[in-house]
Amino acid sequence: MSKVTVRNLTHLPLILKRAERYDSKVVRTGSVFTNTIGTITSFINATNFTTSETHADGEARSFKDVHVEIGSFSAKVTEFSPPEQGKDVLRFYFECEGKRYQVDVPTATDTSTVMERLSEGDKRELTAVYIARHDFLAIMSSSNLHAWMKEVRDEYPLSLLSIPGTHNSPACYTALPSVRCQAVGVSEQLENGVRFLDIRVSATPDNDNLALVHSAFPVSLTGTKWFGDLLSEVYAFLDRNPSETIVMSLKREGTGKASDQDMSRYLRDRFIRGNDGADAKRWWTRGHIPTLGEVRGKIVLLRRFNVADSVRKSENGGKGFGIDAAHWPDNCDDGKCGGGLVRVQDFYEIDQSTNIERKIGYSHAQLERAAEQLFRNTPDADAGDKKNNNKVKPPPFFVNFLSASNFFNATCWPERIAAKVNPAVIEYLCMRHGEDGKGPKKLKVGDACTGIVVTDWVGAHGDWDLIRCIVGWNARLQAKK
Q1: How far is CA 155 from CA 8, 251, 290, 447, in A?
Q2: CA-CA to 334 of 20 to 30 Å: which in 202, 269, 349, 357?
Q3: Do 320 and 351 belong together in one domain?
Q4: For the whole model, what pTM was predicted?
Q5: pLDDT tens-digit series, residues 227-259
Q6: Contact between 24 and 93 (Cβ < 8 Å)
């Protein structure tokens, strides 16, 4: 008979101290009206919506005190059988640095839960994700998602972080179902941990107003949405949270007749040099991967368009304008651009729903490649470093798009792809990521970052589990010597 496995994804050791087993009860939540609307919306968008919660009922019918040490980033199979669905609840008690915590499995809903703190004055938060079909409990450090970068040291290159992102980030408005990619707006995404924004704009000759689009379509059917307004949201967020940085991938799409070169001038003259030059301080437009300390409070430009010669020569001493990703590899499982600064998984042409498994496999493989990277912040690590003026080369950005779509197949519209891909990636991050040989390519693990993971349809009905799982892997940097 299977037993519950516990994986500790924090940088501190955990001790399982006690287990109790209860009868379960189902508690209805919400009103008839909100449940009806939520269920309809969930059906249309293929997002998860629950109208009930599972709780422990009455007194524990059995218990056992134990002492099971679970080291940082390690897993242990416990002696406890998993709870039987609909019949009982298993309550675990853990200790971390002398503080006590408890969590029930299954959790009250299908989403993650913050473990209950039992020690007075304890401010640490731990998050638990229970994967019922594998009898697997993952425990990770909770983060203040609005300012999670505050816990990461300045000297780390940005490419070493585990960064959640969104695909076609502002495509959250009323739109064609094949066009809409997000459940909530950019401000809410940022407040909940997203730090990579994928922005597509349409440019018109002799008009520096850039309209937000997804391919040839506007992101909203109720009126044009503008890049300048989006920037105001981003600036306001960074003003509130100066410890954070945002990587912005910017690309020209849509039906506008202006060129990439035109757009590069619009971006420089209005949006970067504008506001009497004050906004220039908000941007990182150099052509190399920065450290986090260099770009706190700034937008890092990942440029998916060509630039006018006048723009290139005028910026950064003539050394370019942004991290150059203009030659983006199309529909690839592992492509390179930017002179090797960017590696991309962006397989998006899904022609049938069964092909989604191929997409999931590519996503897992890119996570594994990102995890393999190892960064040593030691100038004299070897002779090669000395030849490079004592500068250690950072790993590239591993950009991993979980998104895909097929305009002509409703089962392959963005939200329906996300309904299958996102849970599969959560499961991988909880169970296999950061383990030698557990990925598709059986690679060794280095610093175990996830890279930039670009998602669709996160935040629907308050479900931020995927974002929490990505951010949680930054705890590996806290354990790094």
Answers
A1: 26, 29, 9, 15
A2: 202
A3: yes
A4: 0.93
A5: 999 999 999 999 999 999 999 999 999 999 999
A6: no
